[in-house]
Amino acid sequence: MVERGEPEKIKDIDSEYLSGKRQAYQEDIAEIEDVDLDAATPGQDINWLEDVELLEEEGTPAVFDRYSNSFIRIYFDIPEGRENEIARKVLVKHLQSGNSYGIQLKEKHTKFPQPELGPWVEGSKTVGTDYHPPVLEGWEPPAH
Amino acid sequence: MATVGEQRITYDARGLAEPHAEAPRTAKVEDGKATFDAHDLSTRQINLELRRLLYEEGITDVTVQNPGAKHSLGVGILTRCKITFDGSLGYFGCGLIDGPEIQINGRVGWSACENMMSGVVVVEGNAGSLTGAALRGGDLVVKGQVGARSGIDQKGGTILVMGDAGSMTGFMMQRGRQILCGNVGPGLGDSMYDGTIYVGGKVKSLGIDCVPGEWTEADTEFVNRKFSIYGLGDPPEFQKFVCGKVLYNYDNLEPAERKLVL
How do the domains of chain A map onto residue ranges? Predict the structure, then answer.
């Protein structure tokens, strides 16, 4: 994991850096074995997950989270022949748990109503119903 | 010209100038399914009513009657649900969606399902140009024909077209798959980076760096699965096209550039 520093000079951003911690499902395959990919996606097959494959980030197996533009590294041994399935399950677990940094930003920054946990969790609460633009203290709009 | 005190009703297909941004609350809900008539509603009112039903009321099955080919309907829906449009949509219909399964009983204008993240959209009629532009994921099924530059900048997902496709289909395609059952115009897959295009008919001409690919068992499984899911019968014999990778090489991309196409 890249250490924070001033000035920050990192070229790769991963989920651990954004959320500040490593999740259990990145280290233990048992944490993701019960993820139902078909149930987690629209339609009658795995839908958008068809495009998700196991990749590599700085030599570590990883799956890309497009909702936060970051890699989720996988530290457990991945059984041969199940590479993409495991990558998809880790990603879905990450999204359903609300650990994706993009989801964490929704409560504060979403301008329009939408489910906090996106389409992956049924009955997720709606955020973005009371958005107010941030105000810079002491700033006044210039007189024209 | 309208006289003083008289409100003149005009149709603005772009849905601009909606002084009262409130959902009209005209839907009828029965057995957990909602239906509303969009004939007299503006684009914004229709989308507000859709979002009210889906996000506030928790309805997961909505039918929109008489959409009237208005533009930008059903955009930005970010939840799992079923939406049926009983009629045609204008341009940019069902763009930026993530999760819905949408049935369109009509035609669609240009850029349908632009930037779709996930979900299923089935169009019973034809679609205009730029269908599935920048599609990122999900299935887009068009039972009619599609216009030029369909799947331009496609970054994932599947576009399945039962009819013909126009020129420059798959232009700058980066990932994903296209299944085109009919004939295709000139410039197929021009400047594509990656992805797979299956063509059942004749190809007028291939674009730069688009080359025939080797058919595998995975291709057969994929095509058969999609045809089976959408009840499209037996698939025709397809020819497969991929990127020749002469113009571009992903392996040489900087990390930040690499993320843009994932």
Answer: 15-99
CA distance to partner chain A, nearest, from residue B160 (Å) = 13
Chain B nearest-CA distance from A65, in A, is: 9
Q: Answer whether B139 sits within 8 Å of A43, measured CB to CB.
A: yes
Give Cβ neighbours of residue A36 (< 8 Å, ≥ 6 apart): none
Q: Among residues 185-224 of chain B, which lie with CB inside 8 Å of chain A?
A: none
User: How close B23 gets to chain A, by Cα (Å)?
Assistant: 13
Residue A7, preceding peptide bond in cis (omega within 30° of 0)? yes
Backbone phi, then psi, for A26, in 5-degree steps? -85, -15
Residues A52-95 pLDDT 10s: 999 998 899 999 999 998 999 999 999 999 999 999 999 999 99
Give the integer Cα–Cα distance in Å for B155 and B177.
9
DSSP A48: G
Give percent above pLDDT 70 in chain A.
92
Radius of gyration from C-alpha coordinates of chain A: 18
When CB atoms are compared, the residue of A44, A47, A69 closest to B118 is: A47
Asked if this assembly's ipTM is beyond 0.95, the reply is no
Nearest CA in chain A to B139: A47
pLDDT digits (tens, 9 = 90+) for B114-125: 999 999 999 999
Q: Which two tokens stand for residue A58?
A: 């700085």
The whole-angstrom separation of Cα B173 and Cα B242 is: 10
Task: Please tell me the pTM assigned to this model.
Answer: 0.90
From chain A, the residues in CB contact with B139 under 8 A are 43, 47
Is B262 in Cβ contact with A55 (below 8 Å)?
A: yes
**B262 to A64: CB separation less than 8 angstroms, yes or no:** yes
H helices present in B163-235, as ranges: 217-229
Strands (E), chain B: 28-30, 33-37, 61-65, 82-86, 98-104, 118-123, 139-142, 155-161, 175-180, 196-199, 210-212, 239-243
